[in-house]
Design a protein that fits this description.
The chain has 422 residues and is of the alpha+beta class. The protein is built from 14 helices and 13 strands. Helix 2 runs antiparallel to helix 3, helix 2 packs across helix 6 and helix 4 packs antiparallel against helix 5.
């Protein structure tokens, strides 16, 4: 992710590669699975040899453990080659069951919030559950169907990569040829499984012994945005304790930060997976150091430039969302919520209507609100359908930042001694 630059040429190449892979998976599923198994075997043996060399050179305990693990997996795959297709089917089967759980929770949420749409969610829940059960019960027999599904996904991905490339080639994205910023869209997202754990990987990168080099690598401003001050900033919160390391997201605009979550511990259900939806507002310049110093987090902020019309649209959406809530005051003295109220001028409001009346960790979560508020101004970075995570949203923001003509113009790591001024 650090080295990838989304130029028109790279997007076009990715589109072609995804199309070729998709056709191959769809036309020759058995061969594709066998090829994948062979490539994985080669990778494991090469990785084992590399780790063994490092182990002999450095005499590191960590290298010894990694070497033994690579060796064990390589031998296991050599002895049981069908383990690849079985593992793939089991992983996707479990993912389908998680999707079914997500839709089931959405059905419950529709009834709890008195909103429509429960019939569609119920049908989707049943469909995902059936697919998941089949994949779990017959993993080998289901591998062909799984290869077909991956092939279709790859072909669809190639189409959207090509559309992105065409917009870049023709100058239809971000800053137009007349210098005006225009609305941009990304309508297709990568498998959530591939991006969910991005905050965990990013935390490990920033904890590298050469920390300053990593922070400098992640703190950049795009050439198109030189000299510009972002109008909107979207934050990814990173720490081992934040949602079990999966992160949290909120936005800042006009000197205020807006964060949605399960702040009311007394309303928690299923260990906080379901809760009353609460919107928190706080002063940006005190909220960031509070997160760093008191909550021991690091923040990755993506700065976005907007037109006056876009800014006003976001302000109106925020005002409407705030107005839909009633004031709520934390009752437990000394906890994070009361400390934020005292140190960051934070206020809390419980949402009263619509799906965000109830917080749902899989769907109506912090990412959905950040996307909804910023999207009202044309910052349409992803579809809110299905399971959405901070890692998925961060992947899209980083993808946009790395495109040459994007309204995402800066990427900043906030840590101790950071300059938090806009």
């Amino acid at each position: 992710m650090l080295k990838k630059v989304y130029t028109p040429l790279s997007l076009t190449i990715q589109s072609i590669l995804m199309l070729v892979a998709g056709i191959f998976l769809f036309r020759h599923p058995e061969t594709a699975v066998s090829t994948l198994t062979g490539l994985l075997q080669i990778f494991l043996w090469v990785a084992f040899a590399n780790c063994l060399f490092q182990c002999l050179a450095r005499k590191s305990n960590a290298s010894i453990i990694k070497t033994l693990l690579y060796l064990a997996f390589a031998i296991f795959l050599q002895v049981i080659p069908d383990s690849v297709r079985i593992s793939m089917s089991l992983i996707f089967g479990l993912w389908m069951m998680l999707q079914a759980l997500s839709k089931g929770l959405s059905v419950w949420q529709c009834f709890a919030t008195h909103t429509r749409g429960w019939i569609l969610y119920a049908v989707q829940c049943a469909l995902f559950a059936v697919i998941g059960i089949v994949l779990l019960i017959h993993p080998i027999l289901s591998s062909t169907s799984l290869a077909w599904a991956l092939g279709i996904y790859s072909i669809l991905s190639s189409i959207f990569y090509l559309l992105d490339a065409l917009r870049e080639w023709l100058g239809f994205d971000g800053f137009g040829k007349d210098g005006k910023r225009i609305r941009q869209h990304i309508r297709f997202k990568p498998p959530v499984l591939l991006s969910t754990f991005l905050p965990v990987r990013l935390l490990r990168a920033l904890d590298d012994p050469d920390e300053e080099k990593e922070v400098a690598m992640w703190t950049q401003q795009a050439a198109v945005g030189k000299g510009r001050v972002p109008d909107l900033e979207i934050f990814l919160h990173i720490s081992k304790k934040t949602a079990m390391g999966l992160g949290h997201m909120d936005i800042a605009m006009d000197g205020r930060t807006f964060s949605y979550g399960n702040y009311d511990a007394e309303s928690h259900q299923l260990f906080g997976a379901i809760s009353d939806g609460v919107l928190m507002q706080a002063d940006r310049d005190t909220y960031i150091p509070f997160c760093i110093d008191h909550e021991k987090k690091r923040l990755l902020g993506y700065g976005i430039v907007l037109t006056e019309e876009q800014k006003q649209a976001i302000r109106d959406k925020i005002a409407s969302f705030v107005q839909d809530g009633i004031p709520w005051v934390p009752t437990k003295e000394g906890d994070e919520m009361t400390e934020m109220a005292r140190l960051c001028n934070a206020t809390y409001r419980k949402i009263q209507h619509g799906s965000f009346r109830k917080y749902n960790v899989l769907t109506t979560n912090c990412v959905a609100v950040a996307n909804m508020l910023s999207g009202s101004g044309g910052v349409d970075l992803m579809s809110p359908q299905g399971i959405i995570t901070p890692g998925t949203y961060c992947e899209f923001l980083d993808r946009q930042f790395r495109r040459p003509n994007s309204i995402v113009i800066s990427r900043t790591v906030y840590k101790e001694d950071s300059d938090i001024r806009s």
